[in-house]
């Protein structure tokens, strides 16, 4: 892998030119052969599935707002085809996912889901969505195993941790020049899975590992282990609430090792939790910096009074894949699933095409850095 600073991404139209047929996954006749007439729809909804409350709610709200913007723009442009948005707030808890997924498949008007947002809830809800034939596109769930369950309904628009993990390890070795890496995870499906990949990729440079729990606030034992190991970098697989407290306690104990985290920490909530200790943290993410797409950035800021954040743009793309299919007449789950499986079109984050497992064929991983209390893009990590 090599590292390079990405100098710019192509600026696309804000919406996906939904009235055009050229970006569909099949020919015009096939695209209009679903449950409704192309250009019209009635009693059709897509859903957002993920956290709107709970410790990692910020990440879910980012995604929900990206979906909401796509739906609002679609409805403004298509008077004869109004699509509603249903919200399924999981609080990021896999234990709540079963009931919510059952609720979603029981609502016949819901023909597609953007989500689930997190890997743990995706693992729980995935078989239910598959049984109900309800297509999903996640903008954020990155555990590699999710696409290996044989769920025809599963898709995601971002690279998984099989690309993010090795990229993080290479950044640690080649950019940070770290020779001693300590790996910590939060025992979640996302955090533990990613940490394991980083540990394997870092190889002999790993001088220690530890596991914490989500909701934990005292990391003194972990900090002691890190300090004793002599590590010059620490990788943490988990979410921003625990990451903020961990690095704060590391710095208070005099541990100066570079703190490296991943997409679950890419949120202002990390800086709020960590305070000044957040400075210098490296964050990897298989996501495009939102400011790369200036029209989307401006529209999002106008709609929500805040800049788009982690996975807002990916959620916007995921929703627009479904909305384009709906406009082409795919107004039931079966035909919309066929549309998504065969889809090829331009999003604002990438050209979107799914392989037979629902994985995107185009991926990118970026490194971000906390500077002066802000999360800023550092460089794109080439994954080929």
UniProtKB/TrEMBL annotation:
<dbReference type="GO" id="GO:0006865">
    <property type="term" value="P:amino acid transport"/>
</dbReference>
<protein>
    <submittedName>
        <fullName>Amino acid/amide ABC transporter substrate-binding protein, HAAT family</fullName>
    </submittedName>
</protein>
<feature type="domain" description="Leucine-binding protein">
    <location>
        <begin position="44"/>
        <end position="371"/>
    </location>
</feature>
<comment type="similarity">
    <text>Belongs to the leucine-binding protein family.</text>
</comment>
<feature type="signal peptide">
    <location>
        <begin position="1"/>
        <end position="22"/>
    </location>
</feature>
<keyword id="KW-0813">Transport</keyword>
<dbReference type="InterPro" id="IPR028081">
    <property type="entry name" value="Leu-bd"/>
</dbReference>
<keyword id="KW-0732">Signal</keyword>
<dbReference type="Pfam" id="PF13458">
    <property type="entry name" value="Peripla_BP_6"/>
</dbReference>
<dbReference type="InterPro" id="IPR028082">
    <property type="entry name" value="Peripla_BP_I"/>
</dbReference>
<keyword id="KW-0029">Amino-acid transport</keyword>
<dbReference type="InterPro" id="IPR000709">
    <property type="entry name" value="Leu_Ile_Val-bd"/>
</dbReference>
